[in-house]
Amino acid sequence: MVHLTVDIGGRPGIDCRGFCSYCYFKHVKDVEPFGCKNCLPFVRGCDYCSRGVREQYSGFKVLREVADDVLAQLQFLQGDLDRITISGGGDPSCYPQFRDLVDLLGSMEVPLHIGYTSGKGFDDPDLGDFLIEKGLTEVSYTIFSSDPRLRAKYMHDPTPEASLAILERLCEEIDVYAASVIIPGVNDGENIFRTCEWLESRGAKGLILMRFANSTEQGLILGNAPIIPGQCVQSVEAFRDLVTELNDTFSLKISGTPLWDPSIGSPFAILDEPELLAKLPRVEKRASVVSGSVAAPFIQRVLDACGNRAPVIGVAKEIACLITIDDLKALHPGALERTVIIPGRAFVHDEEARNVLSADGTDREVVRGPDTLTADAETSMGMERNGVLLMEMEGFGELIRTINRYGR
Length: 408
Fold this sequence. Notes:
The structure is a single chain. This protein has a seven-stranded parallel beta sheet with strand order 1-2-3-4-5-6-7. Strands 9-8-10-11 form a four-stranded parallel beta sheet, with helices on both faces. The protein contains 14 helices and eleven strands. Helix content is about 35%, strand content about 15%.
């Protein structure tokens, strides 16, 4: 399959009619570069972990520049193009030349996909018909709530009725995957049930629930916690229970991040497949595998089923790919093996990690593991169970081979 991604640029909070009340990028500060796998060996900081992680881009690209980018990409594509995805740091619905862009891309007669939109920039209810006519076949659309008053208050949507009308029209004709950040006391409880009823009756394919984050441990690593002072947050377990209840109640697929996808059993669906676990390589050496607090218990179970004899170390940070050097500093080096495997996408500079984890005088080798071991809800929403299981087989196979290669 040949896909083309059309990047329209844009900045969070600026090119989207302002921050939503719950936005991850709200209050972002100028933090020091974290370090990451893309950094040079002796330099902490690169474009990705200093600027990219904060999405500090310039504004929207002009249509001419976008068109030139598309033309340049087309010249290097091999095979027949079967999908075009519109994405960017800003919200596509707020792109000043959005209709012209869709008209241009639609002329290529290839299915269009909008990777994400809040719909806050959609003011004309007739836009839904235009998008369908031009070949839009799939969209990820933040609903937050089917109550326009809540959209207006928490998303700062100036025309919530129009945004919902367009969402309703799209649900009738194309694949719509709605999304909602769950804020306890705001759009949970009876409200989320009404939102699910609204989406189900309109024909949406699925709904991704996102647990609201309000602290550093929950993933706010850009000096921007709390997003909403005093706002409580669901526990991971309570959030998972809500996802399960909703998925059992409604016919549309409902999943959540960080947990879980009830219809597939992910993340870590492989734990329910003993025959697949038996096909993974055996763990032959010892190494400390570091992960986030959500994934660590699952990873421990998978590795133990493959003969592992070392504990998986969960840090305070919930999400593995958001681990920073502060999380590693909080560990007790004496409890670690001589080889330590950190998540592939952790925001840590390799040399700094080695120094921190060797602070007790024992020289430890720090190795990066796979970028992904499983599929979160945003990934699994459009996948079948076999696809997720294949991803997990590949990820854990790579992790175990890394343990066996560098472990002691």
